[in-house]
């Protein structure tokens, strides 16, 4: 029997430094905030007993809120030299010394960065993060990185608003752009590519984020009649989630609002 799990999502932190308009309010709230050292060591031992291809070191928050994150990464790299290890970061805490450590030791195969815009007002309203800090950290990483594949995902806030209006017939729950803001949001895909290509040593792969409307679940009617199959079946079929307390889940949504589905996603 093939008992291989393709992806392991190892969640070191349920706390985030950002407050993004598209993120779920309930994310990670039913588990503990950070993975402790003794749990990580036990998970590491258990991972040696199964086959997998990839470890996502992201999950329900910003991994670097857990001060052990770089050392957990070091141990994963040492134990699983052939696995693809990736990280989704908002870069608020990716200071130069952390970038240097990760790059020099080649601890990651892939770095994924989500960006809502290169215009200051767009970015700051989208995330609540400080523009100069994040962009300085990203630039430092891109200028010095010579071994980690970089993916930049453009989260177009205007598309998010349009999707909420089309599918849910309402505005997003977290109204970060008000009044004329939404009309003033332009597609920054080309500007984003030009901005980061100009500083990066490595070639960057760009994509547009397909929004699942995860953050809108709090205000959606439950699908009592089960008319809609889970929109994430294709994702969860190959992935398990490990929470900071070491518990394992087959579905990242099952603890949120009774597994409400967003129609049409
Ligand atoms: S989308 Fe990511 S960076 Fe933004 S609040 Fe959620 S976990 Fe944090």
Could you please describe the fold and organization of this structure?
This protein has 265 residues and is of the alpha/beta class. It is 31% helix and 14% strand. It is built from 9 helices and 8 strands. Helix 3 runs parallel beside helix 5. The two termini are 33 Å apart. The site of iron/sulfur cluster (SF4) has 8 residues, from loops. Iron/sulfur cluster binds next to loops.
Set down the secondary structure blueprint.
Layout: E1 7-10, H1 37-47, E2 54-56, H2 69-79, E3 84-89, H3 96-104, E4 110-115, H4 120-127, H5 131-144, E5 149-154, H6 157-168, H7 181-184, H8 189-197, E6 204-208, H9 233-236, E7 239-242, E8 248-249
Helix pairs in contact: 3-5
Q: Keyphrases for this structure?
A:
TIM Barrel, eight-stranded mixed sheet, alpha/beta, 265 residues, binds iron/sulfur cluster
Can you give me a brief rundown of this structure?
The chain is of the alpha/beta class and 265 residues long. Helix content is 31%, strand content 14%.
Q: How is the main sheet built?
A: 8 strands, mixed
List the strand order in the largest sheet.
Answer: 6-5-4-3-2-1-7-8
Q: How many helical stretches?
A: 9
Please report which band the strand proportion falls in: under 5%, 5-15%, 15-25%, 25-35%, 35-45% or over 45%.
5-15%
CATH class: Alpha Beta
